[in-house]
């Protein structure tokens, strides 16, 4: 790699530099407390997955290119040149990080490893070394946004069968799944396929909600890739749709990263203030139940059931009580995992790992702690309001022969609704 390419890649760090990142670069005392917080280091013992080490790779680049000693006394600076070896290491540790921030929670200085991982991803993309699979998925989503008319008929066709199922479930031949409904109160953003559309449609129908379905899926692979421009373009498809339909709020399905992108990141990235509210479907369901807009059967689930706090919904967004409130309405034997809430262990599937086949074995291995946590509860059902977590839990269930059932909160509620 020539010097110009090295400086261009290192220059990404300079462009991303701000007071917070500088603080993170300066303050780490190498105390190693974070080593016991990261499920990836605990289950593999590989230093590459130690949170402080992930940051250290970036710190070495900083020391080499942006400190006086790195420039004039390189042998004393602990700096590292940007070369293929460094990029290989960076790729492995960065696209493996689930962004769960458990390390940040336990770090005495609250050092946020995900900041380093965001810089690392931007450096890798600049070097032409970003994740191929995530780039393809993000690119496909952007194309869909640019040519939605081509996809509209396919979506309408796909929804015909789902609408029939809805009518049977609610016993009403007029029940429908509205799309493109101008003036609806809420725009519901589901995931690809119909598994997050049908239960939501049952709930909205019973709550007599004035809703409409988004043409776009909630997942944002630009976010996982670490390409802010693409992440904004993918989110903006939904924002533009909400604007043109003049809805009052956007409701995101049970998908942790999608919710976080729309609720917490989009406005800062796009530098625009949104004219409508954004919230997750779990919050809305809890509101419907509290307001008596949906009635749930008194015949509660008797099998032991536990709840997995998705990192993006719990630790990274602060939603702990709403899911538990709902679960307690429908389940008679709810058992908490230990630890839970902000201390909960990551399941191992976040950060886009479930979409990267080359990391399959790694994520199954690093899910060991979650398997043990679930087993200790004795639960037969595991509930989690995040698609990535559910996919990972499905994999763990199969690989570790757990014999459990994994479900969303929407499915629990839709199945408990009295028609
Ligand atoms: S816990 Fe914080 S200060 Fe200690 S090594 Fe890890 S990142 Fe550094
Ligand atoms: S964010 Fe999670 S996966 Fe990434 S280093 Fe921290 S604890 Fe490990």
The name CATH uses for the topology of the largest domain is: Rossmann fold
Structural domains: how many: 3
How much of the sequence lies in strands comes to 5-15%
Mean pLDDT: 96
Principal-axes shape call: globular
Distance between the termini: 66 Å
- Summarize the amount of helix as a percent range: 40-55%
What is the CATH architecture descriptor of the largest domain?
3-Layer(aba) Sandwich
- The structural class is alpha/beta
The kinds of small molecule bound in this structure are: iron/sulfur cluster
State the total count of DSSP E strands: 8
Largest sheet: 4 strands, parallel
**Spatial strand sequence of the major β-sheet:** 2-1-3-4
The string of secondary-structure elements, in order, is HHHHHHHHHHEHEHHEHEHEHEHHEHEH
Radius of gyration: 23 Å
Oligomer: single chain
- Given this structure, which CATH class of the largest domain is correct? Alpha Beta
């Amino acid at each position: 790699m020539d010097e110009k390419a090295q400086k261009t890649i290192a220059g990404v760090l300079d462009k991303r530099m701000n007071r917070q990142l500088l603080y993170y670069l300066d303050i780490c005392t190498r105390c190693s407390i974070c080593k016991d917080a990261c499920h990836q280091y605990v289950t593999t013992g590989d230093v590459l997955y130690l949170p402080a080490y992930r940051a250290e790779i970036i710190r070495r680049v900083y020391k080499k290119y942006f400190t006086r000693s790195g420039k004039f006394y390189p042998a004393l600076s602990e700096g590292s040149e940007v070369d293929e070896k460094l990029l290989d290491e960076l790729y492995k540790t960065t696209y493996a990080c689930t962004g769960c921030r458990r390390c940040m929670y336990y770090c005495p200085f609250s050092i946020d490893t995900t900041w380093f991982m965001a810089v690392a991803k931007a450096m890798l993309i600049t070097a032409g070394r970003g994740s191929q699979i995530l780039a393809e998925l993000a690119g496909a989503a952007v194309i869909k946004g640019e040519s939605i008319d081509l996809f509209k008929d396919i979506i309408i066709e796909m929804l015909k069968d789902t609408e029939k199922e809805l009518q049977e479930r609610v016993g009403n031949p007029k029940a429908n799944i509205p799309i493109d409904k101008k003036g609806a109160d809420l725009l519901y953003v589901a995931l690809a396929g119909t598994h997050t559309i049908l239960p939501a449609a049952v709930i909205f129908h019973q709550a007599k909600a004035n809703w409409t379905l988004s043409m776009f899926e909630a997942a944002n692979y630009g976010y996982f890739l670490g390409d802010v421009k693409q992440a904004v373009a993918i989110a903006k498809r939904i924002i533009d749709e909400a604007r043109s339909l003049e809805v009052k709020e956007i409701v995101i399905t049970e998908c942790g990263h999608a919710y976080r992108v729309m609720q917490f990141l989009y406005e800062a990235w796009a530098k625009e203030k949104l004219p409508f509210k954004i919230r997750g479907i779990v919050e809305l369901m809890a509101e419907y139940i509290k307001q008596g807009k949906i009635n749930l059967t008194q015949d509660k689930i008797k099998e032991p059931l536990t709840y997995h706090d998705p990192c993006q919904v719990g630790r990274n967004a602060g939603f702990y009580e709403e899911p538990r409130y709902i679960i307690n309405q429908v389940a008679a034997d709810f058992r908490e995992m230990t630890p839970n809430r902000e201390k909960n262990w990551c399941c191992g599937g976040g950060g886009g790992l479930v979409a990267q086949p080359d990391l399959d074995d790694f994520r199954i291995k690093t899910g060991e702690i979650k398997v043990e946590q679930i087993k200790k509860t004795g639960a037969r059902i595991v509930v989690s309001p995040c698609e990535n977590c559910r996919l990972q839990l499905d994999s763990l269930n199969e690989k570790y022969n757990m014999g459990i059932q994994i479900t969303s909160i929407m499915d629990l509620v839709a199945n408990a609704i009295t028609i």
